[in-house]
Design goal:
By secondary structure, the protein is α/β, with parallel strands linked by helices. It has one domain (about 5-135, about 185-220): Rossmann fold, CATH 3.40.50.150. It has 8 helices and 9 strands. The protein has helices spanning about 5-10, 20-30, 50-55, 90-100, 115-125, 155-170, 180-185, 205-210; strands spanning about 40, 60-65, 80-85, 105-110, 135, 185-195, 195-200, 210, 215-220. The strands form 2 sheets. Strands 3-2-1-4-5-7-6 form a 7-stranded mixed sheet, with helices on both faces. Strands 8-9 form a two-stranded antiparallel ribbon. The longest helix is centred in the C-terminal third of the chain and has 12 residues, at about 155-170. The chain is globular. It starts with a helix and ends with a strand. Mean pLDDT is about 90; it is low at about 215-220.
Length: about 220
């Protein structure tokens, strides 16, 4: 059953998702289905989403959900761990990594405030798996002043995303205006959807080596 079908047929705890999000979910998280993945979910909501991820990803998946609301502890079960803390607190996030190991995938469905989103990304992105996926949803709030956003506002994660496109391609900039960074070396793709931002990592060899024709020959470029 597809993730979208699980969502549509849900009769358990409420799940609040926009319908078009499922295209992005299945496209970027589909590789983890049936695998021993550590899936970090920021924001527990009403507990329905962690159950959806558990059913879709399968019995080998470990779902780790963080939320600032103590009531969310009740959503924990044999496959879903819930920890209470501030998503923008590096010390708290480090305790999650210390306890559960490096996340393979992160879905930020937390406060949606620019400061919190940016600080979570700043800390976690470098620390997820080398082929990991980092997704931030509900980023229509990046255009809302009450969430610390606004079109062109430098605090907005969408404005940061725009700048990171240059970092992604820094190896190809010849005028010296952009210097390759750790982000350049570890990031292979950035994808923007309506209200969703996705960052995908890949081991260095996959980004800087390529096959030629059908020959087993790899060449630097």
């Amino acid at each position: 059953m597809s993730l979208y079908e699980l969502f549509l047929n849900n009769t358990g705890r409420p799940i609040h998702k926009s319908g078009h999000y499922f295209f992005a979910y299945e496209r970027h998280f589909g590789k983890y289905v049936g695998q021993p993945v550590t899936f970090l979910e920021i924001g527990a909501g009403n507990g329905g989403s962690s159950q959806m991820w558990k059913r879709w990803l399968g019995p080998l998946a470990r779902i780790v959900t963080i939320d600032i609301n103590e009531v969310c502890r009740q959503y924990e079960d044999e496959q879903v761990a819930v920890r209470i803390g501030d998503q923008s607190n590096p010390q708290f996030l480090q305790t999650i990594i210390d306890e559960f190991g490096v996340p393979d995938a992160v879905l930020d469905d937390g406060s949606h405030h620019m400061q919190h989103v940016s600080e979570s990304f700043q800390f976690l992105y470098d620390r997820i798996a080398s082929n990991g996926v980092y997704m931030i949803e509900d980023m229509h709030t990046a255009y809302w002043p009450e969430y610390g956003g606004g079109r062109g506002d430098p605090r907005s994660i969408i404005e940061r995303f725009k700048g990171l496109i240059d970092d992604l391609n820094a190896d190809h900039v010849r005028d010296g205006t952009v210097t390759p960074s750790k982000f350049t070396r570890q990031t292979v793709a950035m994808t923007a959807y309506d209200s969703i931002l996705v960052f995908e990592k890949a081991p260095l060899i996959n980004k800087h080596m390529r096959m030629i024709g059908n020959e087993d020959l790899r060449v630097n470029y």
